UniProtKB/TrEMBL annotation:
Domain annotation Ketoreductase: ranges: 15-194
GO BP: fatty acid elongation
Gene Ontology MF annotations: oxidoreductase activity, acting on the CH-OH group of donors, NAD or NADP as acceptor
Pfam family, one: adh_short
Protein name per its UniProtKB record: Short-chain dehydrogenase
Chain ranges passing through the membrane: none
Protein family according to the UniProt entry: Belongs to the short-chain dehydrogenases/reductases (SDR) family.
Length: 252
């Protein structure tokens, strides 16, 4: 990683982007936006929803979708190979797939803690290693965007293991950005709470409380997060190793 030329070349916009958890919620919004921006997109989740299948049908030459459990490294590897055969080398990754939590730490089963850590921390680290190795082997420069959460920076009851995984990914973002010496730009986007299947466990009282604490007066919308992800993948900036919070200043 000590090639001085690495520091003199810019990282071009990603043109083939892998999105994990692209079947619904924020992931689906990211896939939709990237396809509309002309980017080629490979997206997977455990279940391909009708919405994701419809998008793929609408962009047959620029999309590749499939059913993959992100914790199954062999399946993820096979998906990446198939996607690259169809779309070309992947030079952008959005680590978005994750599972939520709604249980006090003392009541969370060991197996549930393990599942949250495996899905939200181990799997994205593995997927990142797999895709970055391929980028470097092919002499490509690329970009990684990790979707983390405001929970990594502020405490929320019922989200202890989840918060730990998101804090882990924020920390990995910084160290990987250093390790890759500018060949691959690595950043994280940390949204505030937004409505999705994951956050459906929040009650109206909690949602009202979050809105009251938010200077912009509303919950974050996926559409307010998507442009930041696109910017990190596509714009020529020198942003690297950062965690960008998108929460209307709720956490300030
Ligand atoms: N919602 C919020 O308030 C909020 C706030 C801050 C950050 N975030 C983060 O934003 C990201 C998206 O969250 P969301 O709210 O859009 O969640 P969501 O609606 O529950 O979507 C999660 C996505 O990840 C996929 N996924 C989950 N486990 C998977 C696995 N083992 N293998 C492959 N795919 C898997 C899901 O599909 P399958 O279930 O079919 O696999 C789905 O496509 C997550 O990283 C989350 O932590 C969410």
């Amino acid at each position: 990683m000590s090639d001085p030329a690495a520091h003199t070349q810019l990282v071009p916009p990603s043109s083939v982007v892998l999105v994990s958890g692209g079947s619904r919620g924020l992931g689906l919004a990211i896939v939709t936006d990237l396809l509309e921006s002309g980017v080629k997109v490979a997206a997977f989740a455990r279940t391909v929803t009708p919405e994701l299948a419809k998008l793929a049908d609408a962009h047959p030459d620029r999309s590749h979708v499939g059913s993959v459990d992100v914790t199954d490294l062999a399946a993820a590897q096979a998906f990446v190979r198939a996607a690259e055969e169809r779309l070309g080398p992947i030079d952008g990754v959005v680590n978005n797939a994750a599972v939520g939590q709604d249980s006090l730490h003392v009541h969370t089963a060991t197996a549930d803690i393990a599942r949250i850590i495996e899905t939200n921390l181990t799997a994205p680290l593995q997927l990142t290693r797999l895709t970055v190795r391929r980028m470097l082997a092919q002499g490509l420069r690329g970009r990684i965007v990790n979707i983390t959460s405001i929970c990594a920076q502020r405490g929320f009851p019922g989200l202890v293991a989840y918060s730990a995984t998101k804090g882990g990914m924020d920390a990995a973002t910084r160290s990987l950005a250093r390790e890759l010496g500018g060949r691959v730009l690595v950043n994280a986007v940390a949204p505030g709470f937004f409505a999705s299947e994951m956050s459906a466990v929040l009650g109206q009282t909690q949602l009202d409380q979050i809105v009251r604490r938010t200077p912009t007066g509303h919950l974050t919308e996926p559409e307010e997060v998507v442009p930041v992800v696109r910017m990190l993948l596509r714009e020529q900036t020198n942003i690297n190793g950062q965690v960008i919070v998108v929460d209307g200043a709720a956490s300030i």
